[in-house]
């Protein structure tokens, strides 16, 4: 529910409206615009006294949001949200070019890859320190040592860094070293984890679950937003289907679908969606053409030696070629790639 105040509403009237909705059991979220103030009400729309909200002095009208995801909806926030991560902005015409290896393997290895992707035009460095793997015997990541390496390499190349957090017990540790949390597909509906990163007040990259609907994805984002963290970036990374020639099926329609329903930025991950380096460039271009707010691509200088997901990584020269094409497309579409 949204309480829209009159343009001429005074500060005492605004304060009184906030006090009144709190008395009714709502948690108010105040948005101050150039011309008017809006109060978003978090709570039960059927609470007694709700029908009298429009009688509060200074209130112009009360609007019920019909979608179950209230804070993530365009009804709540008409303009595109722009998420800042270091010097980089994501959304509102600003593209995130996230690149790096699947896993942090060593300082020297990550340093070399970071140099390649930064030169090619990437603006955010990725690398996993904690790796959720299908097999318990596969490489699980370097843990805190990997986080420290990621931070050092990011600082060296003047790039903000994003890495996956898998458990509520890891949130404080990851927050210490990373600029942005990544919630992987397997954890998209780990609601305790979503609440925890919501309270951490750092940008969150939320990946769509492999069997999740767009509504499911937006409801998961709602958990983060409801904790007071407005900086959520969604990620389409492919869904499971009967097709077996690719790792997953990239749902390009999810991008305009999300944008029609939500103000949150959404990027695409063609690496996990396809699992095939030969398909990644065309799917990355298609995603940006569909108005995605960036792409998330795995890059490794020696994929056959990679400790995780080497077969789906682009080589540095392949990534550089793709970035040259993406810059041309971004310019054509009037989009910006912050550096």
Brief rundown of the structure:
It contains 10 helices and 14 strands. The protein is an alpha/beta fold and 339 residues long. It has 2 domains: 2-63, Alpha-Beta Plaits (2-Layer Sandwich), CATH 3.30.70; 83-332, Aldolase class I (TIM Barrel, Alpha-Beta Barrel), CATH 3.20.20.70.
List keywords for this structure.
single chain, 339 residues, alpha/beta, Alpha-Beta Plaits, TIM Barrel, 4-stranded antiparallel β-sheet, elongated
Structure write-up:
This protein is an alpha/beta fold and 339 residues long. It folds into two domains: 2-63, Alpha-Beta Plaits (2-Layer Sandwich); 83-332, Alpha-Beta Barrel (TIM Barrel), CATH 3.20.20.70. Helix content is 32%, strand content 18%. The chain has helices at 11-23, 107-120, 144-156, 171-177, 191-200, 214-226, 254-261, 270-274, 280-289, 316-332, and strands spanning 2-5, 27-32, 37-42, 59-63, 83-85, 88-90, 96-100, 124-126, 161-164, 180-183, 204-207, 232-236, 266-268, 294-298. The strands form three sheets. Strands 13-12-11-10-9-8-7-14 form an eight-stranded parallel β-sheet. Strand 10 (180-183), helix 5 (191-200) and strand 11 (204-207) form a beta-alpha-beta unit. Helix 2 packs parallel to helix 10 (316-332). The longest helix is centred in the C-terminal third of the chain and has 17 residues, at 316-332. It is elongated.
């Amino acid at each position: 529910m949204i309480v829209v105040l009159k343009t001429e509403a005074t500060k005492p009237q605004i304060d009184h409206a906030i006090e009144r909705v709190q008395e009714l059991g709502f948690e108010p979220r105040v948005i101050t615009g150039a011309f008017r103030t809006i109060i978003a009400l978090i709570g039960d729309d059927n609470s007694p006294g709700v029908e009298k909200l429009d009688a509060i002095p200074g209130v112009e009208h009360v609007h019920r949001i019909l979608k179950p995801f209230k804070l993530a909806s365009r009804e709540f926030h008409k303009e595109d949200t722009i998420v800042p991560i270091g010097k980089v902005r994501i959304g509102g015409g600003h593209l995130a070019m996230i690149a790096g290896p699947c896993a942090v393997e060593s300082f020297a290895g990550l340093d070399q890859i970071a140099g390649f992707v930064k030169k090619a035009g990437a603006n955010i460095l990725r690398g996993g320190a904690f790796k959720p793997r299908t097999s318990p015997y596969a490489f699980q990541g370097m843990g805190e040592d990997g986080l420290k390496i990621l931070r050092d390499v990011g600082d060296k190349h003047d790039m903000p860094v994003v890495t996956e957090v898998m458990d509520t017990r890891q949130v404080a540790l990851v927050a210490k070293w990373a600029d942005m949390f990544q919630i992987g597909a397997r954890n998209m509906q780990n609601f305790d984890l979503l609440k925890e990163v919501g309270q951490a007040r750092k940008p969150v990259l939320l990946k769509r679950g492999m069997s999740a609907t767009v509504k499911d994805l937006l409801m998961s984002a709602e958990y983060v937003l409801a904790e007071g963290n407005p900086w959520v970036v969604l990620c389409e990374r492919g869904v499971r289907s009967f097709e077996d020639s690719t790792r997953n099926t990239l749902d390009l329609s999810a991008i305009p679908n999300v944008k029609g329903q939500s103000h949150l930025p959404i990027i695409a991950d063609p690496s996990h969606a396809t699992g095939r380096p030969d398909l990644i460039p065309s799917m990355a271009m298609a995603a940006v053409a569909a108005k995605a707010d960036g792409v998330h691509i795995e890059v490794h200088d020696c994929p056959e030696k990679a400790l995780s997901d080497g077969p789906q990584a682009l080589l540095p020269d392949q990534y550089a070629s793709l970035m040259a094409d993406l810059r041309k497309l971004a310019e054509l579409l009037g989009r910006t790639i912050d550096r």
